Each structure stands twice: as C-alpha cells, then as structure tokens.
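Tutorial handout. Part one gives the primary structure; part two gives the three-dimensional structure as tokens.
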Amino acid sequence: MRRSTDRILTTHVGSLPRPHDLLDLMGKKLSGEPYDKAAYDLRVTRAVREIVAKQAECGIDIVADGEMSKPGFFSYVQERLAGFEPRPGQGPRKFAAEIDAFPEYYEDYFKRAMTGGTVVPIVPLFCAGPVTYVGAEALRQDLENLKAALAGLDRREAFVPSVAPSGVGNNAYYKSDEEFLYAVGEALRTEYLAIVEAGFLVQIDDPFLSDVFIELKSDPAQMRRTADLYVEVTNHALRGIAPEKIRLHTCYGINEGPRIHEAALAEVVGHMLRINAGAYSFEAANARHEHEYHLWETVKLPEGKILMPGVITHASNIVEHPELIAERLTRFARLVGRENVIASADCGFSSQASYKTEVHVTVMWKKLEALVEGARLASRALWQRAA
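Part two.
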C-alpha cells in the first residue's frame, strides 16, 4: 500500500456511475431476459478501461474498476455465493429511526434517488442452505479487466471492493447468526485472497458496522456483542493477508437526507480500528460528521496505519472548493501525520447500478478533480511547513 511520503495521495471509495448502455444489458441479464453474453462481457471490459483511464486523467493515484460489472456493492453476491434466495418484502427494516422521523421526505427520496433508478429492485437475500463461493469465473473476469485497464498507466495502485461478511443477507438456515456469519466469511475469503493474489488491494465495504450503533441502540449490550462479532468474523476471513494489502470502508448508508439518526464516529472508531486493515475510510465531509476530525486529538492511530477520510461528499452536487479540501486534509495531517493521510470521498458515487445517481456524472468528475487539486494544495503547505 502506497503512503503519502512526499505528497498527499488521492483515491475514492470504489463505485462509479455505469454507462447507460451497460445498464441496459445488465438489466436484461439480471432479470433473466435474453441477452448477448459476449456483447455484455465486451461492454464491461470496455467500461472498465474507460473508467480507469478517466480516473488517471483526473490524477487519482489509487484507482478502482468502478464496480462496472456489479449490480450493487453488496447485491453482487447473488452471483458469487450459493445458499441464498431472494425473499421480497422480508428482512429487517433499515434506517427505521431516520425514516420514521422524516417519512414524507424519504418516501419521495427513495423513489427519485437511491433506489428509484436501479436496474433491478433490491430484494432481501436469505440464507436457505450451506454458503459456498461460486463466483470464481466472474471474479476472474473482473480482475483480468482491471489488469488490462491498468496496462501502461505508471505509478497507479489499484484496489478492488468486496463486501464484508456482515452485509450478506439474513440467516434462515444456520443454527445461529454467529455460525452464519463465519460461514459467509469463509466463503468470501476466497474472493479476498484472489484479489490480493492478483496484485491488488482488497477493500472491505462495511457500512453495516456503523449501522449496529443505531439499529441496536436500545440494547447496548447486544450492540457491543454484535459489533464485536462483526470485527471477529471479518478478521477471521482476512487471516493471513498482510494488513497493508487491506483497506476498510465504513459509512452510514443513507446519502442525501437529514441524517440525524446516525452513529457518531466516536461510537464506531474503536471497533473500526480493531479490524486488521492498513487503511481506514470513513465519512468526514458531510455536515453531520465533519466536526469529528477532533476525535483524532484523543484517539491514537495505531502505528503504521493510514486514514482515508472523505474530504468530498457523494451526497451533494456542490463541488467542494480545493482550498476547503486542503483545509480538511491538513487538519487530519496535523493530528495523525501527513504520511498517514490519503484523500478520499465519503462513499461511492453509485453504490447501486442505477440510471439515477445522486451526483450527476459530470459533477462527480469535477469533484474528483477538486479532490486532486485540494491534495496538491495541502501537500504544498504540509511539506513546505516541514522544511
């Protein structure tokens, strides 16, 4: 994993908007309609090449494939894990406190934004049999596409997102949730290992860890037990993989909204830092969480670890000014060390494959350009100041 040894490096969280013609093909594939598999595979390959080249053109140092082949950052496991079945209308109610506080807003919001334009409906998955990994071929294609897209791009490190065990459906088969989560973790370990063995960083996407501190707030003891279990299962699935090959991303699940019912980073950070990753990505640019940089005045970043705070948000079409981005970065650098900071975004710009993205694609690229310029300004100040 590269570090910010002579300047602040830049990255993002992974998901980027898919081209609409690719979404058309993906929709047919996922809904069981006849589709041209060769044409679909070719379009995915080309989309990865295009999105990687665009990231490089923007100046992003640590790039990804944009999750071009995936219907969603967690829903893609329908194609990768056996033992699950969709059960529409079932499963726990997500973001209940937030939605109950603002029902009119979220009724409209979910229709026009987060889920309104997805290529297929997001249906809860339930485990109905032994969990096994069956996605080797799909994963192989993803890794080969990313390798091919990186050819000729000097000094570009790349990461591949993969969902955390805690984000894979609901248990309706194993004797306990603990047994279920360990089975999921063991299956996903196949994916984690393959990503690292292919020469990429693996990013574990785990917004579900932050969710625990809201969904179980009424039962603090159970809240801590569940968070501890998530950490233990993730570490077990990652065993033997060097931490410097692992990034962890956590966030809060809802994009543009009041967001008053979210966990404070102070509640999550102790569990987050126990996951054996080399770098930690979290929201720090949105207005509900920007003040939390003060947390690092008292929380010690473990030796050798990296923070990847969001310094641009995925939930607003306002393009952050590079000077504000630089200011945000220098705050973190002064608290944890400039070499321990990489500039990132709060979350992915298209966590679900959707025709409607929260931030318009043209605005998103301007945000990433601003991210790079802000990192340049912060680097100039930080390294000149050190001299």
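Part three, for discussion. The chain has one domain: 9-386. The chain has eleven helices and eleven strands.
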